[in-house]
Design a protein that fits this description.
The chain is mostly beta strands. It has 3 helices and 8 strands. An 8-stranded antiparallel β-barrel has the order 1-2-3-4-5-6-7-8.
Length: 204
């Protein structure tokens, strides 16, 4: 992407580069102190974990209607920024999402594809996949395949389950993850949050 900067190759520019090079030698690598002060990378979890009884608030987003109103027409797309909360109402993650409606299912329902990045304070989970958005609007539980890519969740795979409570505003949800090789690839039956104890992350 161009930002309008122009090339500088004259004497003044060369002198400036020389000064910067000298400063770099004297001061050492940039950002050393900041890196040292940053949080340490958390070791990946060694056992399966479940984050249950979560709620999700859609903070804002952007919609593109193409071929008809989104999400009821093929061609529509959106971006969205959500906050996830634990059962106590504490914010635990920020979700950055992209979605589009590329096709109609054989039963006439619309299929939406979502791609998400969920940032917790102790790691990052990404999700991607198709789901029946027409069915989801009725409050039926859906899920997206999930994978941990940073921190505590790195190398873990599982599912992010969600239930739309108010379209475009709020959802219920829970996340299940297991270390690679320990996951159950059988699709879970859509239901309310599981009864197992949660592994609630700290605030993001």
């Amino acid at each position: 992407m161009a930002f309008g900067f122009r090339s500088r190759t004259g004497p003044a520019a060369l002198a400036g580069l020389a000064a910067l090079s000298t400063a770099a030698v004297l001061l050492g690598p940039a950002g050393t102190d900041a890196a040292a002060a940053g949080p340490a990378e958390q070791a990946p979890a060694q056992a399966c974990l479940t984050m249950k009884d979560m709620t999700e608030t859609i903070v804002d987003g952007s919609v593109r209607d193409l071929g008809g109103p989104y999400p009821h027409s093929v061609g529509g797309s959106s971006t969205y920024l959500d906050h996830l909360f634990d059962p106590a109402g504490k914010k635990v993650a920020t979700l950055y999402g992209k979605a589009n409606v590329p096709m109609t299912l054989s039963n006439g329902d619309m299929a939406e594809f979502s791609d998400e990045r969920i940032e917790f304070s102790d790691g990052v989970i990404e999700t991607a996949g198709f789901y029946d958005i027409t069915n989801a609007e009725t409050g039926t539980w859906q899920y997206l395949p999930a994978i941990g890519v940073e921190g505590r969740y790195r190398g873990m795979v599982g599912k992010r389950h969600f239930q739309i409570t108010t379209m475009g505003k709020s959802l219920n949800g829970w996340i299940e993850l297991c270390p690679a090789g320990q996951s159950d690839s059988t699709p879970a039956t859509p239901s309310a949050s599981p009864s197992s104890a949660p592994a609630t992350p700290s605030a993001g």
